[in-house]
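Might I ask for a little of your time on a matter of protein folding? The record follows directly beneath this note:
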Amino acid sequence: MITAEDIKMLIKEGEGLHLEVKACKDKLPKDVWETYSAFANTRGGVILLGVTEHKDKPFDQRFEFTGVSDSYKVITDFFNIVNNKQKVNRSVLVDSDVRPVEVDGVTIVHIKVPEADYRQKPIYINNNLQSGTFKRMHEGDRHVTDEELAMLIRDSSDNADGQILNRYGFEHVDLDTLLGYRNAFNGHNPGHFYEKLSDLEFLKNLGGYSSNPSQQTEGLTVAGLLMFGKSVTIHQVFPNFRFDYLNLIGVAPGESKKCHEESEVNEVWLTLPLSKTQLAKDENKVENSTVNGNRVENSTVNGNRVENSTVNSTVNGNRVENSTVNSTVNGNRVENSTANLTEIQKGILKLIHEKPEITIEEIAGRIDKDRNAVNYQLKKLKEAGIVERDGSDKTGKWKII
């Protein structure tokens, strides 16, 4: 149960990521819905109605308990509107989240807005997804960017990989890539009944091709296209997609030279198996199998450590040892590399490669992050065995292992 002391403790910390105060007498403030959307889309928070902020006064005198004159009406209006689809697309509240609290002789309405489940996001207002979706930053409510909105929508789906791409059929599959995968799969699962399936039936069983009779749709799934599709088709469906492969031309460690980004998907191979729910056997090995002309020996998959070689990650005939997928470079031996790095980690590694003696402050400035964030990412890279520090913090150098 929320008490007056709880309210006062919140006020002492002031407005911020999890607290918003608003003056209110007998009508809901119009901007309360922006805050509702922002809290629900971010990390949740508390809205206090009946508190007036005097920004021109010192902090210890800034907030005044002016109170709500008709709390019953205000709370009733709030629930009526939050359940009105024309105003708010979804309510994430229960009755106990909104409570009147007596503080210093006046009534304050305490509204606890929980973070919405990822399946419920984005929470938006005014029946407008584009302009009605907000996020909380510091002590303000901000419109999300187009990229952030796209991420919220994407993350709300439990099965984005299984989405059927209607009209993108088997003719959009790169047969060499599919054959290479089947060879590796057979080595990974000797005697499996999939060996006898046609290529199309093989894709269907993996989840790379599907149909929905009720919607009259049939074609490759998102996962199937990204795994086996032709590069031209992938760019048609996902114009901003970039293949995770850099061909380093004549670059020695520590040198600062530009990388040539390859755009041919067949040079880059994804981890197997495709469907973790159907074929998850991460700890097994691929033995003596050939993938697209490259011999694969004793390899694990799906981000696990690979010993002696890796699935189709050899480029231009160069052998790669102790590496995971999508990490080979032209003519350079790659050891103890890792996949699935975050964009920040990739940026840090690029800077270290260009300038091994770079300082944490320089890295923070180059990637526009604070020092603590850089330290955290470097810690993760160290724990993963990707980088180490040779020498002191002032005079030492970074080393990519």
